[in-house]
Amino acid sequence: MRKGVMRPGHVQLRVLDIDAAVKHYTELMGLIEMDRDPQGRVYLKAWTEVDKYSLVLRAAEEPGMDFMGFKCISEEVLDNLRAGLVAFGCEVEDIPAGDLQDCGRRVRFVAPTGHNFELFASKKQTGKWGVNNRNPEAWPRELGGMRATRFDHCLLYGPNLAETYELFRDVLGFDLAEQVLTPEGKRVAQFLTVSTKAHDVAFIEHPEPKFHHASFYLDNWTDVLRAADLISMTDTSIDIGPTRHGLTHGQTIYFFDPSGNRNEVFAGGDYHYPDHEPVTWDAESLGKAIFYHDRVLNERFLTVLT
Ligand SMILES: [Fe+2]
């Protein structure tokens, strides 16, 4: 049952070289730099997003994800969800408004996988970038690179998937859209949605908490192919694709930012409503579930994590 969590609101990634990262996310992926803060963090957005930013880059010694934040529909909902997290047994940290530029208070918690998540209800809205909200044109002609349209989801590796699903379902109102089960019935991958999207966050079983990828949406398959061309033109490190996922059936390509964080851009894919039964893949079909055409996992998919 939905609880008032609307969508992925932001992800903060650690990068080794902030200038190289900004160039990658703006010139190659087509995100827009919106702000910087006194700590040196850089705030970016994809053009269709109404909030001021969805990606925060922080210079650090090690790559990876600091946290992923979900936007809730109101401050009252945020209070209710905070109480739910505490009742579930989560340790909760209250982060005051303004810690992230133009963002209201955030409620930080650690999921049983070990990843930092947070909830917030208020962020400055700057509207879609490059188009007005009245009689809007189809797209801004100034867009560069892959012309990513929105931050879509993260895939995270970590332990305790069952407890994490319980938390996201019972406290935050997510549904299980797709899963991978072993022959013994153990769930080793779970794709969770709080919307009609195929997934808003996904988890794969792994002994320690790691970041697999942050994904951004493109309009169509032609744009995925165009992204592949741009990856070659810029000598960007590619992981796999363009191809199709079996899970969610999205059309996808994976590549790496200059710090080694994996990115995905994708188009299409399935949709989900709360009355849909979860789609189940058997673990022996995992290759086809991840890479529908190759039907085998490449070693990097399982082992290159930040
Ligand atoms: Fe993905």
Automatic annotation (TrEMBL):
Superkingdom: Bacteria
Reactions accelerated catalytically: catechol + O2 = (2Z,4E)-2-hydroxy-6-oxohexa-2,4-dienoate + H(+)
PROSITE patterns: EXTRADIOL_DIOXYGENAS, VOC
EC number per UniProt: 1.13.11.2
Gene3D superfamilies per the UniProt record, alphabetical: 2,3-Dihydroxybiphenyl 1,2-Dioxygenase, domain 1 (3.10.180.10)
GO molecular function, one term: ferrous iron binding
SUPFAM superfamilies xref list: Glyoxalase/Bleomycin resistance protein/Dihydroxybiphenyl dioxygenase (SSF54593)
VOC domain segment(s): 7-122, 150-268
Cofactor: Fe(2+)
InterPro entries (alphabetical): Catechol_2-3_dOase (IPR017624), Fosfomycin_Res_Enzymes (IPR051332), Glyas_Bleomycin-R_OHBP_Dase (IPR029068), Glyas_Fos-R_dOase_dom (IPR004360), VOC_core (IPR037523), Xdiol_ring_cleave_dOase_1/2 (IPR000486), XylE-like_N (IPR054560)
UniProt keyword terms in alphabetical order: Aromatic hydrocarbons catabolism, Dioxygenase, Iron, Metal-binding, Oxidoreductase, Repeat
Membership in a protein family: Belongs to the extradiol ring-cleavage dioxygenase family.
NCBIfam families: catechol_2_3
Subunit structure and binding partners: Homotetramer.
Name listed for the protein in its UniProt record: Metapyrocatechase
Species of the source: Halopseudomonas laoshanensis
